[in-house]
Design a protein that fits this description.
Elements lengths: L1 H4 L5 H10 L6 H17 L19 H10 L5 H5 L6 H13 L7 H13 L3 H8 L3 H5 L8 H14 L2 H15 L4
Helix pairs in contact: 2-3, 3-10, 6-7, 7-8
């Protein structure tokens, strides 16, 4: 009832939410539900405002090009800004590029996050590396996860088709870690 009160009404979305909250759902059912929700996002044109900045582009570092993309950045969450935790525009562009276009040779996702956390917290980067070190593989795997709209649909659907129960368990563990829920 609580999920329905929060606006989750489709059975597939309800089952996914229950699974994310720790309830057991048969893997075959979960895969079908994930595919259904992903197809729904595609039909709703979820990817209609694609990320354009690509850090691997040879012209990415040109000041006029960077300035154009920095102007297109959406405002940061007010809570982050009020706490003086707004990431730098460079970090936002770099992370956005990695999440949409995939990794580039210019920077490492984990190092970028560690550097940003060290800068915002005044704690040394070594502290953040030690604290987040075991999460490095999960952090680094975000490269290309959102994908460009022309690629996201077909590749997302093919990935859902071959996803394993181990992949799903690791995904739920990552979700718990990000949301501060127990493993």
């Amino acid at each position: 009832m609580r999920l329905k009160a929060e606006g989750v009404t489709r059975y597939s979305a309800l089952r996914i939410q229950l699974w994310l909250k720790g309830h057991e759902i048969p893997i075959a059912r979960l895969k079908t539900d994930l595919r259904s929700e992903f197809e729904r996002l595609l039909k709703q044109n979820f990817f209609r405002h694609p990320w354009e900045f690509d850090a691997s582009d040879v012209d990415a570092e040109k000041p006029e090009k960077r300035a154009r993309y920095e102007r297109k950045l959406l405002p940061v969450d007010l809570t982050l800004a009020a706490a003086d935790l707004k990431p730098t525009d460079d970090s936002l562009l770099a992370l956005g590029s990695k999440v949409v276009w995939g990794d580039d040779s210019k920077s490492d996702t984990f190092d970028l996050i560690v550097r940003e956390l060290a800068q915002k917290s005044s704690l040394p980067a070594d502290f953040w590396e030690a604290l987040l070190g075991r999460m490095r593989p999960y952090i680094e795997c975000v490269g290309g996860i959102l994908g460009h709209p022309e690629e996201a649909g077909p590749s997302g659907l093919s990935d859902i088709r071959i996803i394993s129960s181990a992949d799903l368990r690791q995904g739920r563990t990552l979700f718990f870690f990000c949301c501060g829920r127990p493993f």
